[in-house]
């Protein structure tokens, strides 16, 4: 899936990561919105993840 995404998007500011989303750290105010239709339901500690996203 990552290979296909890289082929379909040619924006130098994009970075694709292959890792557990719970372990990713982002600076404060990194996002205006976060959307996931195929991944959040796999997270064991959903509350912790949402807290991290909220603080980013």
Automatic annotation (TrEMBL):
* Methyltransferase type domain span: 1-54
Pfam families, alphabetized: Methyltransf_11
* Cited InterPro entries: Methyltransf_11 (IPR013216), SAM-dependent_MTases_sf (IPR029063)
This chain's protein is named: Methyltransferase type 11 domain-containing protein
């Amino acid at each position: 899936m990552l290979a296909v995404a890289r082929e379909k998007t040619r924006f130098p500011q994009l970075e694709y990561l292959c890792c557990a989303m719970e372990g990713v750290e982002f600076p404060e105010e990194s996002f205006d919105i976060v959307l996931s239709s195929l991944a959040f339901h796999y997270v064991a500690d959903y509350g912790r993840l949402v807290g991290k996203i909220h603080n980013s």
